[in-house]
Write the structure tokens for this entry.
Amino acid sequence: MQINTPPDTEFSRALLSRAHANDNARLLRFEMDGKWYFAKKPETHETLWLKFFKGNPEQALHRESALLKEFHARGAAVPEILAQDDRCIVMADHGSLVIKAIKKGAPAKHLMQLVGQVLAALHRLGLAHGRPVMRDICWDGHRLTFLDLEAGAKLQATQYDMARDVLLLLHSISVWKQQLPDAGEVFLDAYFANAESGIWSETCALTRKIWWMEWLAAPVVLWHRSRNTVKSEFAAIREARRSIRSRQKALTGK
């Protein structure tokens, strides 16, 4: 859904008024004139620890706003900002999360192919998302949209940044390994069929460098197995690295 609306219009003011009607909600989905919108406000850091590690929440929201505008201007699959003030940004709603769409019957293979294709398209624009995860990808029945550019998004991305995106998203997909056993491989095939050359070798190199994370996670993985945990972000580290190594072996025979 794309609506080009100047920031000083009556429509924008109406959106912001609705967004601020519920001051307690940081993330708010609301309806106006038969269409759905999504509002985002600064985080509230309750502890000094969070303030130290996460920084100023107003500045973080302003940074995300600037990134969204630049990503959108370049044609990336991110939300368009329809209204904004110092405490809030309002965007078009872009449907349900991909994983929820799959649970409701949407074709998993098709959607995972689209995830790979859309990430590759974003990278071909010279951009990096910074933290692509399944909970931040929406599907409206026609197109995918990547949300949340708060952490590590780059306007002049290197192939290392892009490889990092690939591994982070592959890890997020691998959390669903039991429910979607082939999703990681489908995503990788679709991504690298559309990605620039060189990102594959960078991804393989980064996969080798993070070997220690798999060993560090091993005790928690064993504990999760003893409790029959279905989804484990710790076990997903090994699954993601295994997917890369398996693909590399299939391509090279080594």
Observations:
- The longest helix spans residues 233-252.
- The chain has two domains: 10-92, 96-252.
